[in-house]
Design goal:
single chain, 69 residues, mainly beta, three-stranded antiparallel β-sheet, 5 strands, 39% strand
Length: 69
C-alpha cells in the first residue's frame, strides 16, 4: 500500500434515474481504475486516496431518442 495520500481525479458525473453520481479515477499513473467516494484506498493497486469537492461546471445533458419508421 502506498503511504502518501493523493487526490483522486474527477472524471465527470453519471446520471441514473435522475440521481447524479460523481466518477473518480485512481491517481496512480500505472492504475487509473475507477474508484468510489467511500474508498480510503484503491482496491486494485493499494494507493491511499482522498477526495475534494468537484469543480463547479455547467452540466450538459445529452439525450438520445429512437424513432420508429
Amino acid at each position: 500500500m502506498k503511504a502518501i495520500r493523493k487526490f483522486a481525479y474527477f472524471v465527470g458525473y453519471t446520471f441514473y434515474h435522475e440521481e447524479r453520481f460523481s466518477e473518480w479515477r485512481c491517481p496512480n499513473k500505472k492504475c487509473g481504475m475507477s474508484v468510489s467516494e467511500d474508498y480510503t484506498c484503491c482496491p486494485y493497486c493499494g494507493q491511499k486516496i482522498k477526495f475534494k469537492e468537484p469543480q463547479k461546471v455547467k452540466v450538459i445533458v445529452i439525450g438520445i431518442r429512437v424513432m420508429k419508421e
